[in-house]
């Protein structure tokens, strides 16, 4: 793998690598990246799927290489701007009512004291404070509130300092969210954060499509409008009559915004989740064929008019301080995004609403990001390396390459002719001996997942499997309802400590599992990837159903419809490959070292009964497969004997 990455750098080509657990893929791409940065004189960006992996690279792998490699190199660590405190907003917040209670007063004082001494301004340093600070969004350094070099705190700004460290570095460590936020805004006055680079490596590259789609679309939320109104109140304007006019304008925007969001909650659904914005939400054809605004459409027109008046009032100021120019820019951007989403007439996008907590988010996401990525990334950056333990489906990279817009693999004549921008492929198999270390159990005679009998039979299988493994298991479900149903049926039938996702924060839950003998964790999506529990503590992974994407999810439904309209099969070209990659991620939680042993189980009979089941089995690690619980238990025999 290291040789393939080095060739990709030297020949200015793209590379896609599936690197199984235990291959040492991190060093296999870092060492060539260091060599390439030195040889080419350009920066190399490494983008990870999670902040945890970022921290591993910066705290473990990078310092190790800096000690042992003869060539010296520098590295910098960049997070999204929302992770950093904005010194300017923090000062303004001292005189603004942003705190919800007495606890927040103490927390705010702690943040203020910390900001004076911190070298990074990264909220991760506030380890003693709650993970969720209600006022953090009022003091963070996100791009839309930034006034750039016009800010009085520009030189002291933590984002400025972070970017300077990155400018001086050979290797820059970011995460996918920051990378694509930066890529979407690249060229803007305040948006770009990552310095220019000649190559990028994506670790956990199976996440790239979803993250890219999030940032190449449009979004408006009730939080954005609330922040604009709050910042309007804090503008440094001394003219009393102008302040009265701005207060009237702000009250008008606030009133119409509240009506709009309440109307949208009624029009969509009251519960949390993601729902499509269906045609006719804002305007419908009347009886005479004319277009008539719906009540929600009227609410939008009233809100847009109020925002326009706010924009016009601010724009009429003769001498605008930077805060006013920034606010005008944000109003215009919000109006543009709202108009784009409400119009909903660009068929390349899917329009949807997400309700999360007290937040309502209107979004427009590109259905297909392949052309965008080809234009903005693969055609402009000399070398892009994509790697993950799960990128191939049934031995082929066609799915991931098609979804991301990668050029097909070239023949030898293209290679000899230079082939810049073309894509090479490599499967770097795991060094683990799955045939000795793991058994895959497929229960006999399981009913179909939609059958009324399925839940009871699945719970009975889980109980038997947990008794064999003596707990020490993840029971992973494809839905929250499925997870809760299994937990309710199983936890009273076994003598092992049972934890369930949602009972505490993810990090705390994982720590409880690691430190509790014979524990069982019932979990869903967020525990299918990026979780590493080594040794005997995790000896069994049970997956309830094949993890097909929820067809009612608006983004999934739009992607499937797009493939069908192009004459393809959305099931075999999207649903099956995507589910295979997700299943491989879930099963990958078990064998994390050369000494791990354990039991894998998939309770979905379609692996055996459906025609597409063989595609899943071809994609899984080459371990023994059985439908006999006695054979499944054999994987623990050497352990029980003290081996």
Q: How would you explain this protein's 3D organization?
A:
This protein is α/β, with parallel strands linked by helices and 643 residues long. The strands form 4 sheets. A 7-stranded parallel sheet has the order 3-4-2-5-12-1-13, sandwiched between helices. Strands 16-17-15-18-19-14-20 form a 7-stranded parallel sheet, sandwiched between helices. A 4-stranded antiparallel sheet has the order 6-11-10-7, with helices on both faces. 40% of the residues are buried. It folds into 4 domains: 2-74 and 169-213 and 369-428, Rossmann fold; 82-157, no CATH class; 218-366, Four Helix Bundle (Hemerythrin (Met), subunit A) (Up-down Bundle), CATH 1.20.120; 434-640, Rossmann fold (3-Layer(aba) Sandwich), CATH 3.40.50.300. The protein contains 25 helices and 20 strands. Residues 410-420 have low confidence and may be disordered. The protein is globular, with a radius of gyration of 27 Å.
Features:
Rossmann fold, 643 residues, 7-stranded parallel sheet, Four Helix Bundle (Hemerythrin (Met), subunit A), 4 domains, 14% strand, 25 helices, alpha/beta, 20 strands
Give a short summary of the structure.
The protein has 25 helices and 20 strands. The protein is α/β, with parallel strands linked by helices. Strands 3-4-2-5-12-1-13 form a seven-stranded parallel β-sheet, sandwiched between helices. Strands 16-17-15-18-19-14-20 form a seven-stranded parallel β-sheet, with helices on both faces. Strands 6-11-10-7 form a four-stranded antiparallel β-sheet, with helices on both faces.
